[in-house]
Design brief:
Elements (H helix, E strand, L loop, with lengths): L2 H27 L6 H12 L3 E2 H8 L3 H13 L3 E5 L7 E5 L1 H22 L4 H28 L1
Antiparallel strand pairs: 1-3, 2-3
Helix pairs in contact: 2-5, 3-4
Amino acid sequence: MKQYYEDLNSATVEVYEYIGELERITSEKYKLNISIGEIHLMDRIYRERGISIKRLASQLNLTTATVTVRVQRMVARGYIVKSRNLKDLRGVTLDLTREGVKVIKAHHFFHVRILRAMTQDLSEEEITTITKSLEKVSSSLKEYIRKEKEKL
């Protein structure tokens, strides 16, 4: 592997691990009895109130069964509420409870703090360059995932 790929791989893994560690620290600090995966699931519900389990599973690239189990756990813990879909009585829609919204708002604040920490020593030009590069990387990964799914 070329050196720049090795360097990029190391930097990417390191950043991913640091963000994960900061998420764990924040979860412990605020005594959130919730996993990062559950927070990300709740964040999707927060962004799209009334989302169906099937759509949520698709957005998270998880099976419907996996999302159903996670949702049931979070309903029992008071973070999510399920309602009958008025357009299709066979389905349910999901929303966050007041407690769920509190968790997501804390998580959004956490993201702001991480971004400030990540960019505190960078110029606006460097931040713009990183942002554009990450947007390209994200687009490339999205396309790669699409192609991989087609092979299944």
